Amino acid sequence: MKTKFIYNILLAGGLLSATSCNDYLDYQPKGLLSSDNTRSASSAEALATAAYAGIGNDEMIGPMTSMWIYGSVRSDDAYKGGGGVSDVAEIDFYEHYNLTRPDLGSMHPYTWENFYKAISRANAALTSINALNETEFPLKKIRTAEMRFLRAHSHFMLKMLFKNVPYITENLTSEEILKTSNTALTNDQLWNRIAEDFQFAIDNLPAKQTQLGRANKISASAYLAKLRLYQAYEQDDTHKVVNINKTRLQEVVTLTQQVISSGQYSLQPDFAENFIAETENGPESIFAIQYSINDGTAVGRLSYVTGLNYPHGAPQYGCCGFHQPSQNLANAYRTSADGLPLFDTFNDKNVDFATETVDPRVDHTIGLDGHPYKYDATKPFSNSWIRDPGVYGFFHTMKEQQLATSASYHKEGPFIGSSKNIDILRYDDVLLMQAEAYIELGQQAQALPLINQIRKRAANSTGRLKKTDGTFASRYNIKEYSATGWTQDYARKALQWERRLEFATESPRFFDLVRWGIAEKTLNAYLEKEKLRRPFLSTAKFTAGRDEYLPIPQREISFTKGLYKQNPGF
Q1: Three-class SS string for 29-96?
Q2: pLDDT over 60 at 222, yes or no
Q3: pTM for the model
Q4: How many helices (H) and strands (E) does the chain have?
C-alpha cells in the first residue's frame, strides 16, 4: 500500500506535542527544541514535516479531520448511532444541542487543543525557517508559504467551530500569547488575518508540487475562496446573518475561476472514486490529510477518527455502528419523474427504494439492506449489521469506510483505522462555491452549468453499484436542471440541495446551514418531524444565537483568568 512522504518523518510521536492549548503554548519540551538546535536546514525541514503531521493528529475524541460529530450529527444528515443514547453520551449532547454549560463535554476542548498544537508546530517551523537565509535554506520561501497555509487551515477550522478564537503567530512571545484574547479581533478582522496567510501561500507557492500532500498555489486559492464565502455571510454578535457581502462573493468567483482555469483539477469520472483508497489523490482532490500504511512503523500512520463507524454486526468489522444517516437524509434522495429533487414534498413520507426513483448518490452514502456494501456486490449490506435499530433505524454510513479487504484497512483491537486520505477540499466543492457566489450575486444563469456538471457526474456514477446479477438495487433517475424557471430563488434552493446530497455525512451540512443563516429554521423543522420517527430526539431543540457554535472550553477561560470570553448563551 502507499507510503507518503509527509508522514515518513514523524519525529517519534510528536515533536512539539506538548505545545498546545493555551496553557501549553509557552511550554518548551525538554531536550527537543531550542534556538540552538533548530538553526539548520535539516531542522527546518523536519519541523515543517512535523507541522504537516500535526493537522492530522486527531482521534475519536478531539476530531480535527473528519467533522462527522460536529457537522453531520449536529445537522439533519445523521444520528449518533452506536449502542443507544448512553454509548459515548457526549455525542448525544451535541446531537440534542444540550451543551448548555461550557464545562460539559470533553471532545471540543480536545479539538481546540489539537488545533492549537498544530498551530504551534507551524509556528515552530516558521521560527526555524525565519532564522535561515535562502542560501542556507533554498526552500525557505516555499516552506514558509506552506507553513502559513497550514496555520491558516487550523485557524479556519477553529473559527468555523468556535467563531471567537485567539489568532497566534510565530512572532508572539510567550507573554504576548498569554495576553491575546479570543475577542481581540472583530469577526471580520479575524477572517482577514487568516486570509493573509492563504494569500501569502498563493503569492509564494508553485502551482504544482513534486511531492504528494504539499499545499500549492491552486489549493491556497481554493481555500481562500472558501474563507471568503464564509466571510461574505456577515453575522452579528448573536450569529444572525445580517448581510451578504457582494464584494466578497466576487472574490469567490475570481479565486474559484483560478482553480478551474488552471486545468489542474477536475471531477472524478465516478463519484465513488472519492471514497476508496485505491483512487485517492486523484484529479478531484485539491488538498487532503495524508495517511499511510506499511510505512515501516508498527501499524502505519492511520486515521482512527471514524473508527467507531463501521458495521457492528458484520463479522469482518464488529465495531461500533456509530454515525447512522437520518430518515430525513434518505428521503432527500427521492426524485421526481423528471429526475429532479422533491424540494417541498421529499419528507412527506419515507422513501421506498423498491418502487420510487432516487438520486444514485444515495447508494454511495447510505448502507441499505440488500444493496452492495462499499462497491462489493458479493457482500451486500444487511440489516443484521445495525447495532441498535430500535433507537436509530436501519441506515448505515458508507463514505468514510473501507472494505476489510482493502490494503488501507487495519483493525487494532476493536477499533478500525484506515490509511485513506481525508479530503479537506475537492473540486466538486470549488464548482459549488462558485455557483453559490453567482447565485447570490444575481447571476444565477452562470451557476446552472456548474451545478449540472455535478448532477451529470452523479448520473454517470452507477457502475460500481450493480448487484451480482447486474441489476441495481435502487431505481435511479437523475436529470440536469433546465434553464426554464431558473430564478434566483429556485437556483438558491437547488444549490443548497446539491451541496447536501453531494457532501452528505461528510460534515459540511451543519456549517452550511449556519453560514446561510437558516440553521434554526431548518434544524427545528427537521426535529419536529424526525422525533416522531426517532423518539430519542424528543427533547432536542436548536437555540438560535447559541447553538451555531461550540462553547469556548471552560478550562481555557479559567486558565486565562477570564481573558477569553464565552460565546453567547453558554
Answers
A1: CCCCCCCCCCCCHHHHHHHHHHHHHHCCCCCCCCCCCCCHHHHHHCCCCEEEECCCCCCCHHHHHHHH
A2: yes
A3: 0.93
A4: 18, 14
